Structures are given as structure tokens and as C-alpha cells.
Description:
Blueprint: H1 2-33, E1 41-44, H2 52-69, E2 74-80, H3 82-90, E3 99-107, E4 122-131, E5 140-145
Parallel strand pairs: 1-2
Antiparallel strand pairs: 2-3, 3-4, 4-5
Amino acid sequence: xxxxxxxINIFIAIFWIAILTLVIFVVVINGxxxxxxNEAEIIIGNSEKFDxxxxxxxxxxxxxxxxxxxxxxxxVTLEYHEEKSDRxxxxxxxxxxxxIIFYASFTTGEKSIENGFSPNSTYNGWRFVLTRDSKDGEWxxxxxxxx
Length: 147
């Protein structure tokens, strides 16, 4: 009986070691292919429409989206220029006072093709359109891409 308990405990230990190894492997692989945001230059122009907290919360949403969704891409710059953003919003379908547009420049890697990007390329003027329901609402990414 004691021998059977030892064998069962060994199998349980091996099972948990295998699970832990798999979790570590998945975390490492995801980190290798996640969008890179650490060295991005964030450029924010003057704004009469949004305060610093509103703009910073929009930036955080974009950075999270980029890191989680832009496989093996490297964000180079992320910019907000109110005049340019407002010109585009006025000609679009969005609510003027609750829409903000950022412009990004990024490079892609070999695995970026999974996102529909050309591998080893540079994309400039990539738009992140964010909207919210009200001034106190949370920003959400409405659309991305070039105009």
C-alpha cells in the first residue's frame, strides 16, 4: 500500500511539473511575440478639448491594444495632434467631443504577417480612433488603420 501511495505521489509531482513547464513556456513565447511598446516615443501636442488625464488614459488603452494585438511589432511613435485629429473627426461619423485620434509609426517582424501586415516593414500614419460614451466614459478603440 505504501508503495502505491509513493507511485501516485510521483505521478502527481510529474503532472504538476509538466503543467508549470507549460505555463512558463506559454508566458515566454507570448512575451517574444507581443507588441513592443517600451521604447515608443509618445508625442502629445497642445489640447483644448481634452485634459492630461483624458489623453493619458487614451494612450494607455492604445499601448495595451498594441502590446496584446500587434504580434512582433515595435511601436516607434504614438502622436496626438488636436488640429489634425479634429479635422478628421469632423468629416467622419464619430461624436466630435468624445472622439480622439492618435497616429502611430511602427515596424513589423517576421510573425507580423499573422496580423495582416507585411513582414519587416514600417507603417507610418497608422490611426487609432478611440471613442467614449460621455466625458466621464472609458475610452475604447473604435477602429485602426490608415486613412
